[in-house]
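Reminder: ligand-aware prediction takes two inputs, not one.
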Amino acid sequence: MVKNQIQARGISDPATLEAMRAVARHEFVPEELVARAYQDSPLPIGFGQTISQPYIVAYMTELVSPRIGQKVLEIGTGSGYQAAVLARIVDSVFTVEIISELGHSAAARLTRLGYDNVAVAVADGYFGWDAHAPYDAIVVTAAAEFIPPPLVEQLKTGGKMIIPIGSPFRVQTLMLVEKTAAGVKTRSLIPVRFVPFTRSE
Ligand code: SAH
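Here is what comes back for the chain with S-adenosyl-L-homocysteine:
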């Protein structure tokens, strides 16, 4: 998976590659899909949600430049896979999931696998996780119509956020947001297809 799907497409950050090799992806997919866990595609994880394609997880990880000592926020826990990849690199990962069943099962899975530096909250990630802010990096894994202002607020100066922006069920654009002393810079990267960023009522 790492050699043919990830390195072959240009991912070269050693920390990212190491983390992608270390996390057992088959632990994060439903039992009936274990045989397909390492294939080059997203897979369903229930509740209409998906675990992202391995390459996309690696691409998003590399782009936020995760390093030892950092604190990262993820919005859209899903299976917990992206959180586990980040947790292999940084000191602590805070991840927010809006569907309580998915949040609770991801939390149990991460605990069982020994990822004790990941904390999961069930909430609307639009508001980030203010109690632990500011974050060195923010990774959003559901497609939003616009960049939620609370997330920009909770990003450190010098920090990076990666977020798919666009309409649900259509091709979206992965955007890199960099918060600098001079302001917020955004850059459009590649076309992607993520499940929608939903809001609690
Ligand atoms: N990172 C996940 C991918 C999950 S798919 C993984 O590695 O498996 C995106 C997830 O975002 C879904 O589980 C969906 O329920 C969740 N989501 C959508 N809108 C959200 C919101 N406003 N706050 C938190 N999570 C949200």
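The pocket of S-adenosyl-L-homocysteine is lined by residues 49-52, 75-76, 78-79, 81-82, 96-99, 102, 124-126, 141-142, 195, 197-199 (CB under 6 Å). Residues 61 and 72 are 11 Å apart (CA to CA). We will return to this case in the review session.
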